[in-house]
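[#protein-structures] MJ: dropping tyrosine ammonia-lyase here for a structure pass
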Amino acid sequence: MTPLPADPTPLMFGDGRLCIEDVVAVARRQRGAALSADPAFRARITRGAEFLDRLLREDGVVYGVTTGYGDSCTVVIPPELLTELPHHLFTYHGCGLGRFLDAGETRAVLVARLASLSVGMSGVSLPLLEGLAALLQHDILPLIPAEGSVGASGDLTPLSYVAAVLCGEREVLHHGVRRPAAEALREAGLTPLRLRPKEGLAIMNGTAVMTALACLAYDRAEYLCRLATRLTAYNVVASAGNAHHFDEVLFAAKPHPGQTRIATRLREDLHSDRPSRNEQRLQDRYSLRCAPHVIGVLEDALPFLRQLIETELNSANDNPLVDPDREQILHGGHFYGGHIAFAMDAMKNAVANLADLLDRQLALLVDTRFNHGLPANLSAASGPRAAINHGLKALQISVSAWTAEALKQTMPASVFSRSTECHNQDKVSMGTIAARDCLRVIELTEQVVAAMLVAARQGVALRQRVAPDTRIEGAPAAMLDDLAARIPLVEEDRALDGELRALLDDVRAQRWSLYER
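AK: finished. C-alpha cells for tyrosine ammonia-lyase:
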C-alpha cells in the first residue's frame, strides 16, 4: 500500500467546495480524507435521512425507494421488501468488463462520490458517508471495471462495485493485493453496511466515475501543456530557429490570453530579447512558428474546462434529490454527464494536437533537408561508424504511430448517444467513455513527450556541436542538464525503450517544475 501522506491535514468532506487538485492529492495518497465534524453539516445529512424515513412511514411514493428502477418505476415495491431493493440494485449491475480502474483512479472515484453525497441532498445517512471515507482512510479500493456506463443514469454499473464493497461483497485492492471485500473490511475493523432505502441509488446514480477521471485528465493535460512549451523551446534551439516569432507586440495583436502566455514562456526560455543570429531565415515552419497558437488552444480552454469539471464535482447528481430544508423530493436528471462528456471530448482534441505538433517538430529535426545542418536522424555517430548508426530514426516512426493513434481517438464520444433501458434512458451522455478516451489520448501524448525529451537532449547537444556559441540558460538549462545526466547521447545505436519508460514515469510524476501556474 502507498504510505500515508506526510501532510497530516486530511481533505475534509462537508466543509466546502473541492477543487481538481484536492482530488488529485487524495488519488496520489498525498492527503488523507475525513468527514467534517461540523455540527451543521452532520445535522443536514441527518435531516435528509430522517425526512425520507418519515415519508416512507407515511406511505409516500419515491422513485427507486418504493418503486422499481428506470422503466420499472410503475412497479410498487411491497413494504416488507423495501430494505432488499438497494441490494438488488448493486447486484444486478455487477456486469462491468474491461480493465479495472487503477488505484489512483479508484481513489478519485471515491472522492467524487463522497463529495457529491456530502452536498446533503441525497437522503443518505452519516454511516454511509463514514463508510466511504473509511475506504479512503484504509485504502480499501473496490475493483471497478472501466467499461459498462453510458453516463446516464450516471455511472450505474461501475459505481455498483463501490456499493457492493461497502456491503462486504465483491473484491478490492488492499495492500496491493486483490482480495474479497469482506476480508479486507474485517481486517480494518469495519462492519459491512446494510443500505437504507435510497442509499444504493444514491451511490450508483451519479457521475462520480467520469468526474474522477476528468479531474485526473485535467491535471495531466495541464502539465502536458507546459511540457510541450518547454520542448518547443528546445526544438527551436536545436533547429537554429527564429525566436522572434514569439514577439510580445506580435502577440498583443491577437491577444488570446492562453496563447499569449505560451508565447511569453517561449520568449523567456529562448531569451529572445537578444539579437537573432538567424535573420536570413525570416519564417520557420508552422510547427515552430505557430506553436503558441496550437498549445494556446489548450491553455485557453483549461479554465473553462476546470469550471465544468469542478461544478460537477461539487454537485448533487443523483436522482431523486432530497431537500431536507423544504422537505421535498425532487425528481430530475442530474445524473446526466453532458458537461463532463463535452469537457473530455474537447480536452482530448486539444491534447492530441499537442502530440501532432511535437510529431511535426521531430520530423523536421531528423530530416537533413529541414534541420539546418544537423546530422541525419540526429545521430551523434561520427567517422566510419556513422554509416551503420541510425540515431532516432525508429523513434520518429514510433512517435508518428503514437500520434496517429491519438488523433484517431478524437472522435467525440458524446455524439454517440444510445437509447437504453427500454427507452427510459433514451438520451445519454457517454461521459465516462469520453473520459476514458481522453485519458488514452493523454497516455499516447505522454509517450510522444517522453520521446521528445530524448530528441531534445540529442538535438540541442548536436546543435552545440556545430554551433558552440548556442546557449540555453536558467530553468531550461537545468532541465536539460538533468536529461543529459540520465540519457547518454545516442552515438552507437541502442534500444531506447527502458529510457523511454523511465521518462514516461517522470512525466506522469511531473518531475520538472515548469513555469508559474
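MJ: nice. The two ends are 31 Å apart (CA to CA).
AK: one more thing. The first strand starts at residue 11 and ends at 13.
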